[in-house]
């Protein structure tokens, strides 16, 4: 199994993504954003960072990259696609996932550990978690406030497309770090093969890094293929 | 081919909370200006070739559609002029 990690100018979680994928036993290779073919890859990972310096809007310019045609193809064909943080912003800007990520309500770049509740466990990304389990994952973003119009939001909730929601780690009331609607931290598409999320599972795969709650997400990708 | 300059204004849709605007509003109030509200947007000045004003307008609108995110933004072609 081999995954592509797309590098945009300004990506900076690409190495973390590789570390996490390889820790789960998945081969990974970097792909520059000007590539037009992702042939030979089983999945594609859009890493976090500051593509194009967040100019225009976070993820907006990266979403127009040549490689995104192929990411679209992966999404359409049911192959796994993961976008984390800036990668999630790129997926929404490209229209592969609905909604948008706006400036955090408090306008702060927020870098801390948050609670993230697992809402669905029937996806390759979440099959090794328990429904309702609250993960401890780091966030690091300034534009993470998930927004979608009322109709889209109702559809997301109605069809169960919310995969992760911010949740208290220990009873705190201000657990939503950015003002996301419905505490949304991560969503999927109708087919369940595209995952976009603001928290960083790839930064939580080793005790040395402060926790391993992100590792099952990557291990699940392997199990999915093993059947 | 003649050159045109388009001024594209990109704003957050009405009803979408703009924390940047709120912060600016707060500072203006602190400085003694009784303002009702502030919204922060973006202005893009694009210079490009076109044969006619009509073609320039079409191109400018196409670029606006490409650069604004319809999920939360609207764009307006604020001005369009032929450059000398």
Low-confidence parts of chain B, pLDDT < 50 over ≥5 residues? none
Strand order of the largest sheet of chain A: 2-1-3-4-11-10-9-6-7
Q: Which pair has the most extensive contact?
A: A-B, 19 and 11 residues
CATH class placement of chain A: Alpha Beta
Q: How many structural domains does the protein architecture of chain A include?
A: 1
Overall pLDDT of chain B? 96
Number of strands of chain B: 3
Helical element count of chain B?
2
The span between the termini of chain A is 13 Å
- Enter the CATH topology name of chain A: Rossmann fold
- How do the strands of the widest beta sheet of chain B line up side by side? 2-1-3
For this structure, what is the CATH homologous superfamily of chain A? Class I glutamine amidotransferase (GATase) domain
Major sheet characteristics of chain B: 3 strands, antiparallel
Class from helix and strand fractions of chain A: alpha/beta
At the fourth CATH level, what is the homologous superfamily of chain B?
Answer: Phosphoribosylformylglycinamidine synthase subunit PurS
Overall radius of gyration of chain A = 16 Å
Mean pLDDT of chain A: 96
| Main pleated sheet of chain A | 9 strands, mixed
The separation of the N and C termini of chain B measures 12 Å
């Amino acid at each position: 199994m081999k995954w592509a990690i797309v590098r945009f100018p300004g990506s900076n979680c690409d190495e973390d993504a590789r570390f996490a994928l390889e820790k789960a036993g998945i081969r990974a290779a970097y792909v520059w954003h000007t590539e037009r073919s992702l042939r030979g890859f089983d999945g594609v990972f859009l890493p976090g960072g500051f593509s194009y310096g967040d100019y225009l809007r976070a993820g907006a310019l990266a979403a127009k990259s040549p490689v995104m045609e192929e990411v679209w193809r992966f999404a359409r064909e049911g192959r796994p696609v993961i976008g984390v943080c800036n990668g999630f912003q790129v997926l929404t800007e490209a229209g592969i996932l609905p909604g948008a990520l706006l400036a955090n309500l408090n306008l702060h770049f927020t870098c801390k550990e948050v609670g993230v509740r697992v809402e669905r466990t029937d996806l390759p990304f979440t099959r090794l978690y328990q429904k309702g389990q609250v993960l401890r994952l780091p966030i690091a973003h300034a534009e993470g406030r998930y927004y979608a119009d009322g109709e889209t939001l109702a559809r997301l909730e109605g069809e169960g497309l919310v995969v992760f929601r911010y949740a208290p780690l220990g009873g705190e009331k201000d657990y939503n770090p950015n003002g996301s609607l419905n505490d949304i931290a991560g969503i999927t598409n109708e087919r369940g093969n595209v995952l976009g999320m603001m928290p960083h599972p790839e930064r939580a795969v080793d005790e040395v890094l402060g926790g391993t709650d992100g590792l099952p997400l990557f291990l699940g990708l392997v199990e999915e293929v093993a059947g | 081919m003649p050159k045109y300059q388009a001024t594209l204004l990109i704003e957050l849709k009405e009803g979408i909370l703009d924390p940047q605007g709120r912060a600016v509003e707060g500072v203006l109030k602190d400085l003694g200006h009784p303002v009702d509200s502030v919204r922060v947007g973006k202005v893009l000045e694009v210079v490009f070739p076109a044969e006619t004003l009509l073609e320039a307008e079409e191109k400018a609108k196409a670029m606006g559609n490409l650069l604004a995110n319809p999920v939360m933004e609207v764009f307006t072609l604020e001005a369009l002029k032929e450059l000398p």
